[in-house]
Amino acid sequence: MTEREKGPAAPGRETGVATRTRPKTKKPTLYRVLLLNDDYTPMEFVVEVLVRIFNKTPEDAARIMLHVHQNGVGVCGVFTYEVAETKVAQVMDAARRAQHPLQCTMEKE
Ligand code: TYC
């Protein structure tokens, strides 16, 4: 009898290699990038940061800035670790250069 005519092996007597049924992808851990409110950074500067670094529209940027102004903290975006780290560094660098006390941090989602 050919392999094809025999049909499937009895349970426990299968030979060969198990095939992968799930795609081999791992979801990366994501990180929220947060802006913190302070009393001194100009609103316009925060909006510019959100447009330039987080690619927000001016409308979304103004909305996020006002949320942070009113609530103390707000999410600018959710990214993989290295992207989040880069965004935080870019914000902190822009704030330092402009001598504003704006703070930006990241946390695991
Ligand atoms: N509170 C600031 C002001 O009144 C504006 C501001 C908004 C600062 C958001 C920081 O993340 C911030 N000028």
From TrEMBL:
One of its GO terms (molecular function) is peptidase activity. The keyword Transmembrane helix does not apply. Residues 26-105 form the Adaptor protein ClpS core domain. Keywords: Hydrolase, Protease. Residues 1-24 are annotated as: Disordered. One of its GO terms (biological process) is proteolysis. InterPro entries: ClpS, ClpS_core, Ribosomal_bL12_C/ClpS-like. Binds to the N-terminal domain of the chaperone ClpA. Belongs to the ClpS family. Involved in the modulation of the specificity of the ClpAP-mediated ATP-dependent protein degradation. This is ATP-dependent Clp protease adapter protein ClpS. It comes from Hyphobacterium vulgare. The gene is clpS.
